[in-house]
Design goal:
Blueprint lengths: L1 H30 L1 H17 L3 H16 L8 H26 L13 E9 L9 E2 L3 E3 L2 E12 L2 E10 L10 E10 L8 E10 L5 E9 H5 L11 E11 L2
Length: 248
């Protein structure tokens, strides 16, 4: 009988802990729109799989097993408390579901989010033979895929390296737009100090203008000059620090 009561008490403790945890997360979710966005996009899977129904189901099975044992729990005050805690927990999970279902997504559907930022870094090789557009690996910021894009551009007798921050996401809705602030940098191989750079602020990007940068970022004569330390083994190092402020 003592062992049976101990297991009931342990079940009650687990339920109380889980309910308190869910109450805290619910309070955080309703505290601000930014927190709610974060919970939807970063933690909803974890909430559902690790802290949600799986734990509730496990505890309900535990109650069922106790009910089947010789000492029935009907009429037991601890059993009543267990049933009440399970009911409260299910109500809390329903509230969490209601919040997360109704939050807007971030990204290609064009809906808004708070500003987010990131840094792109890439090594581009065979720079002396650059002929077509080259893209770095992408990172996701504000729900979109961003990359560094470079190419060569002839302007009269001179040839220039062009460099851009580029949204390479697929299926961007025509209503999407954002404001971007960023710095494009060409790094020196021996030191990150004194890069060749250009700054932009408040640039509006749209599906028809999903990239922005400088066509004449640096001339190839200056780029390939060994004294400038921009090229090593026919490769260059590029970096873009950027912040995205979705508007639609």
């Amino acid at each position: 009988m003592t062992q049976h009561a101990d297991r009931l008490r342990a079940t009650i403790a687990d339920l109380r802990s889980l309910l308190a945890e869910k109450q805290m997360e619910f309070d955080e979710a309703t505290h601000s729109f930014r927190t709610a966005i974060h919970i939807k996009n970063q933690r909803i899977k974890q909430l559902e799989e690790q802290l949600g129904r799986s734990k509730v189901n496990k505890l309900e099975h535990q109650v069922d097993r106790l009910r089947d044992e010789r000492h029935a729990i009907e009429g037991n005050s601890m059993a009543s408390e267990i049933r009440k805690l399970l009911k409260d927990l299910r109500v809390m999970l329903a509230k969490m579901d209601s919040i997360t279902r109704n939050l807007p997504d971030i990204g290609g559907n064009g809906e808004t989010s708070s500003a987010t930022s990131g840094t792109l870094r890439a090594r581009f090789t065979a720079i002396s033979k650059l002929a077509t557009n080259k893209y770095s690996n992408s990172i996701k910021v504000a729900g979109m895929d961003w990359a560094i894009m470079i190419c060569s551009k002839a302007d009269g007798p001179a040839t220039y390296l062009s460099a851009y921050l580029s949204n390479i996401s697929r299926d961007i809705l025509y209503t999407w737009s954002c404001s971007a602030s960023f710095t494009i940098k060409l790094l020196r191989h021996s030191s990150k100090d004194n890069p060749h750079s250009v700054d932009y602020s408040g640039i509006v990007l749209t599906p028809s203008r999903a990239s922005w940068g400088r066509q004449n970022f640096i001339g190839f004569e200056e780029l390939l000059n060994p004294a400038n330390d921009f090229v090593k083994e026919d490769s260059i190092l590029m970096e873009i620090d950027f912040a995205i402020y979705p508007t639609h």
